[in-house]
């Protein structure tokens, strides 16, 4: 298995392939993504450990969505069982993907801890009956809390960038090719950094897709004279765009690594 260095325009190709795969089976991709989100929401109800477990399942879920993309690419319908693909091979691979998940969850918890405002903004909003009005925004305490929250969001985004680079390809490397966890993180980082141009175009492409979807939603809401439509449609639109992004992960992995005869064809039997 060798690393491939691809031209920057390949990033746009990954976006197009993600869209193509999604629209071949839109209900399947959206449904699979919704199932995982529902599972994480239920886990979040469990005190203390629920959110951590939900985040720890993200690498396994990534393998499931990549498997779904491979099924659609091969002309097959991805059944819900693909979400469990990461747990259906050898015990060693299951342990590895779970360890990867624990590391991912720990990294995100560390970021949230560093970028937390200790709930100050939420407390101020709650004190105003959940309303953010022009009057409440004149409050110096509210203004400071909003500035701090925006700064913390920027800090969290900056801190998440290296995490995303480390974990972008690692679930696929661990599951399909048995790469040890630490080496998978290293190989993932090298693959992304050696293909910075392609991944920049890829990121900008999905940013444009998300902005376009939001703009269309706002235009429809404006034409109908009801901002409630925009509010109600924001979450479904976000889920659909996220599903499209997940559909593009397999093409990105496939093009970054020359696997030769190691291509996991047997995976399509899952």
Automatic annotation (TrEMBL):
It comes from the Bacteria. The chain crosses the membrane at residues 21-43, 49-69, 96-115, 149-168, 199-220, 227-250. The keyword Membrane applies. InterPro entries: BPSS1780-like. Keywords: Membrane, Transmembrane, Transmembrane helix. This is DUF2189 domain-containing protein.
């Amino acid at each position: 298995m060798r690393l491939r260095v691809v031209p920057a325009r390949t990033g746009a190709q990954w976006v197009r392939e993600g869209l193509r795969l999604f629209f071949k089976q839109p209900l399947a991709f959206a449904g699979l993504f919704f199932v995982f989100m529902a599972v994480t929401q239920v886990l979040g109800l469990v005190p203390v450990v629920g959110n951590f477990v939900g985040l720890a399942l993200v690498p396994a879920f990534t393998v499931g969505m990549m498997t779904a993309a491979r099924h659609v690419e091969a002309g097959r319908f991805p059944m819900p069982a693909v979400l469990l693909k990461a747990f259906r091979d050898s015990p060693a691979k299951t342990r590895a993907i779970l360890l990867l998940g624990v590391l991912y969850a720990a990294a995100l918890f560390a970021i949230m801890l560093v970028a937390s405002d200790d709930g100050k903004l939420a407390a101020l909003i709650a004190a105003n009956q959940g309303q953010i009005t022009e009057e409440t925004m004149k409050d110096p305490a509210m203004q400071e809390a909003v500035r701090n929250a925006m700064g913390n969001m920027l800090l969290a985004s900056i801190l998440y960038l290296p995490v995303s680079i480390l974990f972008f390809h690692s679930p696929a490397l661990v599951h399909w090719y048995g790469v040890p966890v630490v080496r998978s993180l290293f190989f993932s980082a090298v693959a992304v950094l050696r293909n910075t141009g392609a991944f920049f175009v890829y990121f900008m492409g999905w940013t444009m897709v998300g902005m376009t979807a939001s703009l269309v939603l706002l235009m429809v809401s404006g034409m109908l004279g009801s901002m409630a439509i925009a509010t109600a449609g924001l979450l479904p639109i976000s889920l659909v765009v996220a599903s499209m992004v997940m559909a593009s992960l397999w093409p990105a992995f496939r093009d970054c690594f020359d696997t030769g005869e190691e291509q996991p064809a047997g995976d399509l039997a899952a």
